[in-house]
Amino acid sequence: MASYISHPLIKKDSIESRLYQQVLAGDVLKKGNTMVVAPTALGKTIIAILVAADRLQKVKNSKVLILAPSKPLAIQHEDSFKEFLTLPCSSITGAIKTDERVKRWEESRIICATPQTVESDLLNGRYDLSDVSLIVFDECHHGVGAYSYVYLASRYVQESNFNLILGLTASPGSDKAKIKEVCENLYIQNIVVKTEDDVDVRPYFNPVEIDWVRVKMSSELEKIKKYVDKALKVRLKALKNMGIINTVSVGKVDILKARGRVQGEIARSVNPDKELFQAISILSAVINIQHSQELIETQGVQTFNKYIGRLRKKKTKAAKSLMWDDNFGRAVKMARDAERHGWEHPKLREVTKILKKELGTSDGQTKLQSDRFAEKSDDKSSKIIVFTQYRDTLEMIHQKLEKEGIKSAKFFGQASKDGEKGLTQKEQKAIIKSFRMGEYDVLLSTSVAEEGIDIPAVDLVVLYEPVPSEVRMIQRRGRTGRKRTGRVKVLITNGTRDEAYYWSSINKEHSMRNQLIDPEVLRELNESAVQRMEDEKKIKVIERPQEEKKSQLVVYADSREGNSKVIRHLSMMEIDVKVHSMAVGDYQVSDEVVIERKTAKDFVDSIIDKRLFKQARELSEEFKRPLLILEGDDIYNGMLHPNAVRGTLAAIAIDFGISIIPTRNSQDTAAMIKRIAMREQNGEKTHIQIRTDKKPVSLWEQQLFIIESLPNIGPVNAKNLLQHFGSVLNVINASESELQEVEGIGKKTAKNIRKVVESEYLYFKKEIKERKLL
Description:
Elements: H1 19-31, E1 34-37, H2 44-58, E2 63-67, H3 71-84, E3 89-92, H4 98-107, E4 110-113, H5 115-123, E5 132-138, H6 148-159, E6 165-169, H7 176-185, E7 190-193, E8 208-215, H8 219-241, H9 252-268, H10 274-298, H11 301-313, H12 317-324, H13 326-340, H14 346-358, E9 359-362, E10 365-368, H15 371-374, E11 383-387, H16 391-403, E12 408-411, H17 425-436, E13 442-445, E14 458-463, H18 470-477, E15 486-493, H19 497-516, H20 519-541, H21 546-549, E16 554-558, H22 565-572, E17 576-580, E18 587-588, E19 593-599, H23 600-608, H24 612-622, E20 625-631, H25 642-654, E21 659-663, H26 666-681, H27 699-708, H28 715-725, H29 728-733, H30 736-739, H31 747-758, H32 762-773
Parallel strand pairs: 1-6, 1-7, 2-4, 2-5, 3-4, 5-6, 8-15, 11-13, 11-14, 12-13, 14-15, 16-17, 19-20, 20-21
Antiparallel strand pairs: 9-10, 16-18, 18-19
Helix pairs in contact: 1-2, 5-6, 6-20, 8-10, 8-13, 9-10, 10-12, 11-13, 18-19, 22-26, 27-28
């Protein structure tokens, strides 16, 4: 008979007592900030619930914040915490209006949220993290680079008086530097690794059987690949002769590194050799060919042909050169003929064979024929997921299964592709619900179902191809074995990238486990995290320089910069950052100075798509002293000739009168904006009139613009006033009674207009008085 955990905040008989989960929760509470690495089926959420219950009980009136990378996963956590805990719980995502988010934060003890939404709210000062006693980072391997987890961890350590951080993941990765970065960013002091092989876990864990299914590439595909290989070989030899690569035996990573070196050489040269630009074009073509090879080897002609269709639409030299290449062109023709004749990749036949063997029909209902599934009488049907890397392949498998009478549902992300709209979160949820209810036999999914989606009782996972990432491999494998022994079948094409990816994921997983349990690494992590947390705490109390004490600086930022690292750095510099929708520019520090920020990549892209000069014109028309901050040092990246970049810089500075300021990175940009604000605001409290609309251009637009600025006057009333009085001057000079003669203008509005027009400019007097006092 099962025993249950007893706790004042945990609902009675709701959580089964499992020793390993209680030990893990105890380790977190005892040892401090912890990363728990465990397969999905081991119940990492229950561990988080146990830790949360203890914190909420011991730290009175505190809150617990659970962060998840996606809205569905945040909602899923909300459901779990509501199911097991007795305290008020709610969710905060971008789909919820601002006022409602603030209300939920104030009223709830447990908040499940997406990190980007919480970050935006914090930057806008809607609430803070001072009373949060536990923050949980689910899928914490995302905590690298500019991801919101990084900022939120730093902000939490600074603001909260009772820090405790819990990171949850199936795998933080195999790269030692990546693991270290995650741990440093999230202030991890301790790492706990749990696997299905651990003695205390084994009684609760259903083993997962992995079957590597090997297939042989068909002769038709071999012939197509032969011509693609020839097209690749010619270009690799050219690159070797140019001294770009040392050998023709190179992979995708080697080519990407070579392209980076060439782009760097172009950037450093005043007058780059034309051969370097030729090399860039050849390298781009090689990348396209290598991708084509992978599709032929691992996916099939249908997926390859769809890729070629997209390649034809590109206007780059690299794409055009491929279409003109005899060898590549022959491969394209053969692939088109192969699809027309119905020739398939052997994997497609194999996956159909596997599913037909697993599924049968009886009395119109689909069921699994396996005896071990049949003996589970409490389940009416079981579930199968087929994972594939490409949406084109997903469609191909779906069409094949439909012909075979197997009901399948396509499950992919929200992004639209080639005219096919992505699935909304509502549609994704409906598909999962239908799959759970047995309306579909098979769920066909891209990587979107690897993490976070609640798909219980999946008995078989089929991987159309291995993936080189151990994180994704572990996540896919974790979709099975939750209620009974799970099975995974991985399709591998002999002698292709499939084999390399298979061994890569296996080796990376072993490497990850060895590094995570290294006691020396754990000791360094603990010491480093403690020191860094102490340093973060000091940030709040550091004495500000005398020049900054007079008044807090104010910087207005455009809403499109909402998740920018620049805003993060500005807020950490104790600058009052106000996020608004701005008509022109990214940051405004005074009535005269606006700043447009462009990263090097965005700068080059804006030259190519011709929006840069339009933006420059608007900046110079709207503001007296516009500035352009150019962030990064790789503007000469090979996409454009350096002279085109130099010419653009000269035009912006000379033709538009915009000063250009270079910065190294987002932190440097924030520091520069701060200095500009200090000069403009001169240590005094400054009122800045931000531009939410562009200045009107024509005379009648300017007249409407002036009248619309009067109180309670919109476009319709402004037009009525001008039509009635004939000019702006007559409107301004009109009395209250005269104003009320116009349709839509009542007594109150007329009174307010006269008050604005007649009142003395008090702000000016106040300013003079303050200056005298100084």
